[in-house]
Write a structure and sequence with these properties.
The chain is of the alpha/beta class. It has six helices and twelve strands.
Length: about 290
């Protein structure tokens, strides 16, 4: 095995460096840093935090490659499942599992970075589609919501991506052949997506809003490349805030997948979550945000 990689987030780079050393020891290396800006308008009222990717050497099998990167499309299904078995076993002894190396977010890893001098800015999304869904072969997209709220936007995303079906996970009822219960299932689904040249869409249920944090570990184990918060505009805003904030403490959301905006007179309250918003109607994304 090569070095283990973990992702941390926090309010400042100095705090993150101290946290990394405290949790993973003095040999930990910071290999990437990003300043993340969420929400706001033209830089005003935006939320800022930092994310770093750290590497912890595997003393049992040292490697000469400081950042080995293995893409799922270059490996067979059996190898992926073997790795999944090993990762599943580690979940019982490691507080934070390894970050998925197949994520598009790690395309530009900086080799040999020993300390953080300046944060690496996050690459902007295409101007024509600032809140875009990943669409590459094997890209793993998780749509997360309470009760069955994740089903509507997950189905819409699958349709827009021309994917035959989406999977379920978490507290949502199992669907034979399409339910993802653990990391091994996730890796198998990702491998099949690579073989079929399509992304993987998963509707992940977190039960009632108050149960969201308890299921965050299971969601984190899936190693999703992109996580969307499924938000029904007709839900009480306070209930939505409770589960979104509970999960964001563990896993950062990419954006909000909003729906049912035509069924309420105040759909703009969804913007108060401080996340980019994409609305979905009739199985299609809606470009324009609400003011």
């Amino acid at each position: 095995m090569g070095p283990n990689r973990f992702q941390l987030s926090g309010p400042s780079l100095e705090a993150l460096k101290e946290k990394a050393k405290a949790e993973y020891g003095p040999d930990v290396r910071i290999v990437r840093a990003e300043e993340v800006t969420v929400g706001g308008l033209a830089g005003f009222l935006a939320k800022h935090h930092y994310e770093i990717l750290v590497e912890v050497p595997d003393r049992s099998a040292p490697t000469t490659d400081p950042l080995p990167l293995v893409a799922p499309q270059l490996r067979g299904l059996s190898a992926l499942l073997a790795e999944a078995d090993s990762a599943e076993a580690e979940l019982h002894g490691v507080e934070l599992p390894s970050v998925s190396t197949s994520s598009k977010r790690f395309d530009e890893l900086i080799r040999g970075l020993e300390s953080v001098a300046e944060p690496v800015p996050r690459a902007p999304a295409p101007a024509a589609d600032p809140v875009h869904v990943l669409s590459g072969p094997g890209d793993f997209i998780a749509v997360v919501g309470p009760r069955d709220d994740a089903l509507v936007p997950a189905a819409a995303m699958a349709k827009a991506l021309d994917v035959e079906f989406f999977h379920t996970g978490g507290a949502l009822p199992p669907v034979v052949g399409r339910h993802i219960a653990n990391r091994q299932d996730a890796m198998a689904a990702r491998a099949k997506g690579v073989e079929a040249s399509v992304p993987v869409v998963v509707a992940f249920g977190v039960g009632r809003p108050g149960e969201a944090f308890a299921l965050s570990h299971g969601l984190r184990a899936l190693g999703a490349d992109q996580i969307w918060a499924a938000v029904d505009a007709t839900r009480k805003h306070e209930d939505t805030v409770s589960w979104v904030e509970a999960l964001e403490a563990v896993l950062p959301f990419f954006a909000v997948a909003g729906f049912s905006r035509g069924d309420t007179s105040t759909p703009e309250t969804i913007n108060a979550l401080g996340l980019p918003v994409r609305w979905w109607e009739d199985g299609q994304p809606v470009q324009q945000p609400l003011g």
